[in-house]
Amino acid sequence: MEYKNFIDIVPQEQPVTLIRTYENAIFDDVAGIGNITDNYRLFPVRLKKDCFLDVNIRKSRFGKPYTLIERKHLEKGEYCFSVTYQDVLSKLGPIHTFIIELRGSINAEDPLKVIQRINGVRASCISGHMLGQIMLGSINIDCGRVDISKADLIYEGRGPDFVYRRK
Questions:
Q1: Which one of 66, 76, 91, 122 has the fewest CB atoms closer than 10 angstroms to its CB?
Q2: How many whole angstroms separate alpha carbon 66 and alpha carbon 104?
Q3: Measuring CA to CA, how many Å separate 43 from each of 59, 82, 83, 84?
Q4: Using DSSP, how many helices (H) and how many strands (E) does the chain show?
Q5: Cβ atoms of residues 102 and 83 within 8 Å
Q6: Half-sphere exposure of residue 158, counting CA atoms within 13 Å on the CB side?
Q7: CA–CA separation, 34 vs 18, rounded Å?
Q8: Cα–Cα dist 104/56, whole Å
Q9: How is the chain split into domains, by residue range?
């Protein structure tokens, strides 16, 4: 049976990007040092009939499937499934591209057929700036940012100097 008879799928942007954000400069995936924020993606699905669904992720189209949601009987209605950065990291390891696969069938005895494949990309970034940045003139060596400032007012004397600048 054609899947369009029992399921409506919301089109997804391709590729889906899952990002791990490190909040400071000290981080380590293994030790878990530092503040880490993982994002996730929700995938809405509307079922026109009762059916069986599962969700897998793979390294490639013909790679070994890793199950995120086991074959599950769902009644007619609206559902969402989510895929997190940690799902991909724990199942597939440190890869950068992956495929999310939604499979389904109407009858329990029928094999599940692929309904949708969604390409994905895993990435990481640092949101905070490091302390003790290396500057060469007005250029930040770490990220290439240029800081141009002009001192409007300087108070020198006893104690720390007060410098009022605009950027």
A1: 76
A2: 16
A3: 19, 6, 8, 11
A4: 1, 13
A5: no
A6: 0
A7: 19
A8: 11
A9: 3-126, 135-166
Instruction: Give one word for 22, left, alpha or beta, with left for phi > 0 and alpha for psi -120 to 50.
Output: beta
CATH number (3.40.1180.10, 2.60.40.2550, 3.10.20.340, 2.70.98.40) of 3-126 reads 2.60.40.2550
pTM of the model: 0.66
Give the pLDDT score at 46.
Answer: 87
Euclidean distance between the first and the last CA atom of the chain, given in angstroms as a whole number? 64
Bridge partner residues of 55 (DSSP): 69, 102
Amino acid identity, residue 22?
A: Y
The region of weakest confidence among 25-34, 66-75, 89-98, 129-138 is 25-34
